Amino acid sequence: MKLEASLKHFSPQGLAITDSSKSTSPDRITGTDVMAALGSTAAKARFGLCAFLGKNGISAGDEQKAVQQLASIALERAPKNVRKAADGQLRQCMLMLARFAFSEYSRSAASSSDCPNCRGKGLVEVQELVVCYPGYIGADGEEKIAPRMEPQTVKKQCQHCDGKGTLSARCRCKGIGRVLDRKATSEQGAPVFKVCERCTGKGFASMPSTNVYKAILSVVPELHIRTWTRNWKPFYDSLVQECYWAEGKAEIAFERATKF
């Protein structure tokens, strides 16, 4: 049984009370079996299970446990150059990296974030000339009093997010991961699809690493961009990969627990 199939047991659609059994097969997996398998998986791959459940929004507690465990791993495996640059703020830096790494691991085509331009409000404040007095035009059509305009702060719709206040992580391929290859389609006369070059087939855009760098700058102001690119970013990418590896271990442990 796949680990993803266990998610339906956390949000049942309904409860059927009946005296007849749905299945009499001895190989039938019940909800109790699934919960027992999850307990066995937690004993063997606790970090991977917490990361998986936190990513799917099952429990906020599992997400916090996964971030804390990832921060502990980062604290143990931090390279020498990273430790030297962080100096006395190493623990706080590792926690920030763990949070961003888990956020990147949990990212999908359905993910969204607040617009940085309007900060989630959908409106931005701009300075514009506003007509305070429209003026007066006489019956003869001649302007008697000129209109008066003054600069004022007005709120306008954010063009970056079209007034929604949020930005979707979904790629231009609409989350499919493939786009139409126009050249091959015109040559063969039939629709030919290729892997989306922008998202490399994932269906969503990854979070820019510059966001992580700016967050680390608030703790380590003297961190240079070249030091970040050379030493910190590869370590940050390894933390993201660690989440996928941990989920794979939990997947294997769950399949073994449900394989009767």
Look at the structure and give the CATH class of the largest domain. Answer: Mainly Alpha
- CA-based gyration radius: 27 Å
Query: Which parts are unreliable, with pLDDT below 50 for 5 consecutive residues or more?
Result: none
Secondary structure category = alpha+beta
- Provide the CATH architecture of the largest domain: Orthogonal Bundle
- How many domains would you count in the coordinates? 3
Oligomer designation: single chain
Strand order of the largest sheet: 1-6
What percentage of the residues does DSSP assign to strands (E)? 5-15%
- Provide mean pLDDT, rounded: 84
Report the major sheet: 2 strands, antiparallel
SSE topology string: HHHHHEEEEEEEHEHH
Q: Tell me, what's the shape?
A: extended
Helix count, DSSP H or I runs of 4 or more residues: 8
What does this structure look like?
This protein is α+β, with helices and mostly antiparallel strands. The chain has three domains: about 1-10 and about 25-105 and about 205-260, Enzyme I, Chain A, domain 2 (Orthogonal Bundle); about 110-170, no CATH class; about 170-205, no CATH class. Helix content is about 45%, strand content about 15%. The protein contains eight helices and eight strands, in the order αααααβββββββαβαα. The strands form four sheets. The protein has a two-stranded antiparallel ribbon with strand order 1-6. Strand 3 and strand 4 (about 145) form a beta hairpin. The longest helix is centred in the C-terminal third of the chain and has 33 residues, at about 225-255. It is extended. The N and C termini lie close together (about 10 Å). The model has no long low-confidence stretch (mean pLDDT about 85).
